[in-house]
Amino acid sequence: MRPKVSTPHLLLNSASPGTLELGVDGMHCGGCSGRLKKALEATTGIRSAVVVLESQLVTVDFDTACITKDAIRLAVEATGFSVRA
Predict the structure, then answer these.
(1) How far is it, in rounded angstroms, from Cα 36 to Cα 16?
(2) Three-state secondary structure along 5-65?
């Protein structure tokens, strides 16, 4: 069961697009990358997530009025993976 990530400063019905690319450590298989994609896309404010296992990168499109880059990093870590600096 994946932990629920909350974002306390939500503003609903806004359209402020943002994109974030993160290096992620700890993905070893398609199941890992699928789990991360599913968890991120279930997070409020994230529109889509593209996870590439081979390069261990995730690109996230999100609403900047709903979620911060730090909250996205925390969502990755809450799924059990590490974000590279």
Answers:
(1) 23
(2) CCCCCCCCCCCCEEEEEEEEECCCCHHHHHHHHHHHHCCCCEEEEEEECCCCEEEEEEECC
Q: Which two tokens stand for residue 45?
A: 């404010």
Q: Name the domain count of the chain.
A: 1
> Domain for residue 12, yes or no?
no
- pLDDT the model gives residue 1: 46
pTM: 0.80
> How far from chain centre, in Å, is Cα 18?
12
Whether residue 4 is contained in a domain is answered as no
